[in-house]
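Narrative summary of target 7.
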Amino acid sequence: MCKIATTIRNLIFTFIITSASLVNANLIVNGSFETPVVPVGNFTNFGTGSSDITGWTVVGTEVSIASTTFMSNGVTFQAQDEMQWADLTGGISNSPSNGLRQLVATVPGQEYLLEFYVGSATGAPFFFPATVDLMIDGGARSSYFNPTGPSNMLDWKHFSVSFTAASAMTQLTFYNGSAPNNFLAGLDNVSLTSVPEPNCLTGFLIGLVWLFQ
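Modeled conformation, tokenized:
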């Protein structure tokens, strides 16, 4: 009887953990901009309409994907996550229309949590504390400013945004929100997860675990 109870308890735990993992899976493709691989210590520009950045479409004039070891004006532009990150200002245009867009499958009425990091640094005359703008499904642009700008490396500030999906596909667009003289709007480690609702079945299964103690 003890072996049966242990087996049942283990199966219930496995179900609960597996269900939680599925709920918390990142829905964003290539959220850390690791593909395509750019030259080590350098960056690559991608022009308007390009879909060469896996999962993303370039809007505006251009954006850049930079290596974590890229250096300029005494600043090391290290990634927040893994080996690459996106600069929404692009190489030379620095247009406020520059950005990256991704269309994500969602469930209407489901709440989601969008998380991302904004990279900022100071290296006059080109780099200053940075802003990234976000647009969800063509709505208003919201600005996310990282005021911390060290002179030797990027500072990465975490932001999170909750929203309820209105349709089966949700369009997320990140734009360059920095000032016209600022050639830096770092974006990295983008994730989108569904917010779990109270689950009666999970509560029932947890109760069974206690029953089989």
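Residues 10-22, 204-209 have pLDDT under 50 and may be disordered.
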